[in-house]
Write a structure and sequence with these properties.
Five copies of one chain form a homopentamer. By secondary structure, chain A is of the alpha/beta class. The first copy, chain A, has a single domain, classed as Rossmann fold (3-Layer(aba) Sandwich), CATH 3.40.50.960. Chain A is about 45% helix and about 15% strand. Chain A has a four-stranded parallel β-sheet with strand order 2-1-3-4, with helices on both faces. In chain A, helix 1 runs parallel beside helix 4 and helix 2 packs parallel to helix 3. The radius of gyration of chain A is 15 Å and the shape is globular. Chains A and B meet through helix 1, strand 2, helix 2, helix 3 and helix 4 of A and helix 3, strand 4, helix 4 and helix 5 of B.
């Protein structure tokens, strides 16, 4: 039985974990979900570290939503470096799923973008643990999360 | 008995620790506070490291107030990375509470912002140690510290 | 028998690994290729860490394609730092091969740039493992990957 | 007997260590000074690491003077991150004292700023080792090094 | 017998190692040089790590030449952080010698700047290993590498 850690925040304006959990449940079985909710983005790295170390997670999904200000971009950058550092130290993947408030113009669009991106990253997380060949088959395919795929530069001819 | 480390600076223009300590005392019992005051922001990471390693803290609250100059933003960024790195190494949370002098226009507003943000981060720190479910219940709720909450993108309907 | 790890992404719009593998096969023998495909750039460092630690790679090739947005440059920067950090911790080389979508103006040019750069970095990877003297002989020669070589500042006279 | 490490550079245009050492001598006794001079800012982190590891320092003072160019700011940022990282790894404080050439307009002002800032940081270093309560008493007091103190936002009333 | 590691690149347009080696030979004896040539700037940190760990170097000289593009500055920044991190982990100095193509306007000037800076950094490397007092004597002297010294702010009077 694999363990998937889910770390999310009270800062986010969308309940990203709800969408991620729903998608994980739909993706398959053979795993258990562990969850830690922290105040903000920069608390995610240590939450993942604890999900790995104390809770035995095999992979973490780190869900966050940087605000609109310039400073929020700095926070996101810092959090990303912390997540990268944690994953490398733990030797286990952290799937980062950040939705920037500034990516869209309305609350409804933010909810919808959050839903789509969290769901698609959750599917990726599932594939990394259980179906790595699904990823290998789509190498270089120009996949995106939350927005339409860009697709490969060279279409099949 | 849990231990909460509080690291603060002589550089800050508001006694953030005073507000944090008052809030912690109001939040509940079952913990002891350890404190280290250092000159500036960049001294906070090693102060937290010592609060964890020498003083046995279970969580640290890092309180700082970057000045108005462009360079102060760089210092804050460096200090944040150091705090993140420390928390990950220690596997224990550091609640970063930074109040930028440039966020407000007067000394009175700075004092007030400092009071509110330090108090709210202290409450978060308490919740992380003693009431993690309080945070989980408010995942995606758009909470803010020091300013009014942004609220969730999708209001309950 | 040496082991070369190849990490690539589903985000990339060109199947960079295909070109790298073809070049490696043409370069010589004495090695086995291990591959891990991950969703995006920031997943590459931990993929390399796993290629080294679990799969026994002696060197990794990290292939990625940052998108056109400003934010993609930040992601590439973060991924690069993660790759550097991983290589230093593992004491083994990671050859980073990033192709930015913004470097060229059309899909065909992107495919071609990807092909050339991935091939040339693969050749470098092979040289690092099997023919380090080939590199030493060309120190200061102004070599480039994907674009024409800049050449030495002082031409042989 | 405590040990204070002092790391400085040949790049700096002011002999910052001289001022720091004078101030340390005036501050009190009970410590021994160890010194390492390196070429530039980026050599300071490993110099401190050696002062801690080989020379047994309990605290280091890292003195540097970034030049006027934009690139010097990048070097200072890199050096700061290295110093932070070193302090956290060693679990011992490094008091960073950087004087930017661009902070003032003349050589005389640079010498004077260097003198004041190095002296004040040396006093802080002494306090951190021997009189931590002096710092705690001035938490939130808006202290500055090299320039007049900003003072607390809320004056005693 | 000390060991000096020299890491350089095929990307550079000047054979910086040649100048460094010549200067080291002129500086004195008592050391052996170990060399590793890698493709680019970002390969230097792990090359130094290997020079220390596998080849037993006591100090490394990292020679690189960032190109003219904005992106090259990012690469240099990343490489610098990797070098700093490596030196701190190894507890041994890495003398970074980067010559930016954009510092000068012609190939001849680039060759000349490379020659001067590599030579002067090599002399520093030698001093760090064998004559640390030479550096201490020139603390705060405003020394530069590749360009004329800035000199001390306060001339001897």
């Amino acid at each position: 039985m694999k363990r998937i850690g889910v770390a999310d925040t009270t800062f986010a304006r969308v309940d990203l974990a709800r969408y991620a959990l729903r998608e994980l449940a739909a993706a398959g079985t053979g795993f258990r979900v562990l969850r830690r909710t922290v105040p903000g983005l920069k608390d995610l790295p240590v939450a993942c570290r604890q999900l790995f170390g104390q809770d035995g997670a095999d992979l973490c999904l780190a869900l966050g939503m940087p605000g609109k200000a310039e400073y929020d971009r700095t926070c996101a950058h810092e959090a990303s470096l912390g997540l990268l550092f944690t994953a490398v130290l733990e030797r286990k993947p952290i799937v980062e799923c950040f939705v920037f408030e500034s990516e869209v113009g309305s609350d409804d669009a933010l909810e919808e973008l959050g839903r789509r991106r969290a769901s698609e990253h959750a599917r990726n997380a599932y594939a990394m643990l259980f179906r790595p060949n699904d990823l290998a088959r789509r190498a270089g395919a120009g996949l995106r999360q939350g927005f339409p795929d860009a697709g490969p530069a060279r279409r099949a001819r």
